[in-house]
Design goal:
CATH class of the largest domain: Mainly Alpha
CATH architecture of the largest domain: Up-down Bundle
Structural class: alpha+beta
Number of domains: 3
Number of helices: 11
Largest sheet: 4 strands, mixed
Oligomer: single chain
CATH topology of the largest domain: Butyryl-CoA Dehydrogenase, subunit A, domain 3
Shape: globular
Order of helices and strands: HHHHHHEEEEEEEEHEEHHHH
Strand order of the largest sheet: 1-4-5-8
Distance between the termini: 36 Å
Amino acid sequence: MRRTIFTDEHEALRASAREFLDRSVRPRHEEFIAARAIPRDVWLEAGRQGFLGLQVPEEYGGGGVAHDYRFTAVWAEELSAVSAAFSSCLGIHCDVNAPYLVELTTPEQKQRWLPRFCTGELVTAMGMTEPGGGSDLAALRTSAVRDGDCWVLNGSKTFITNGYGADLVIVAARTDPAKGAKGISLFGVETGMAGFTRGRKLDKVGQDESDTAELFFDDVRVPATHLIGTQDRGFIHMMERLSQERLGAAVSNIAHVATILNETIEYTKQRKAFGQAIGTFQHNKFKIAELVTTVEVTQAFVDQCVMAHVAGELTAVDAAKAKWWTAQVQNDVLDVCVQLHGGYGFMNEYRVARAWRDARVTSIWAGSNEIMKELIGRDLGL
């Protein structure tokens, strides 16, 4: 399918990203899986190449292209072609966290964090999800109490991507228990702050190379100067930026599954059974035709959402549609890809098996698919 939303400038970034990933990432992928983390030298190299700060103003060392989300989408697509986990780890930093640190911070905070954010010296994580909360962000229990020139944080977060190795975590905490969702604020919690500790790297079903951890806050004294955005408007700040996060998830979902589907098609051309390539059997041929059509139609919708976001017109409802639908399509298509590989599809040495495991969480994170459908239903007046 010919895509028309990208210019030569976007494709130049794609070529650079692909060259970087071919040189510095793909040959070491097994190393990352074994370590259950992406090593810092990879972050630093990505920073040197200018990939981490695409949404950051040039004065802080960034690319200054936040106005054109297509650059971020190209980067996300190339990361997803490596693995869903790789896209997740770098995407949390480059795509999810960047708007918070660019749009909500003071000049002093920008100087403190953004230059190192762009170089990879400051890896970031987002501390939203809690052990008992899941998608219900308004019910979070981590608290922040003002004490002089500090806020004292207590509580915990879980399922935090980049959580084990992050230098800066944007933490959502309740600053006014009486206000419900209107009493939540955001804080920049840095490595080394007394009382801030991390649990084990979580043992996940998939996304082995993703550094995912629990975070604990025990009377952590966070300077008042580390409040991000406006006090008690943290929930609104998060809601305003969730559409981009969900669009980013959709971009990654469809790029990831398209890569594995293309590899599966090549596999069915080479793998023989009963004297012929398995892709030539009518059932398999028709099934592959269905998968290709589904992926290409979904890609067209995602591209439309990307262009709407570039124009400042992407709605929360359309972002929810893109997020849940691409997650569903990805899981459905990968399930068939595993089936087409037969027994080999159940072997971890085959990319399709890893992709199948990695993709399952995409219907849960960034707001579960059920929450996405609830948002769409409400918009319909149901």
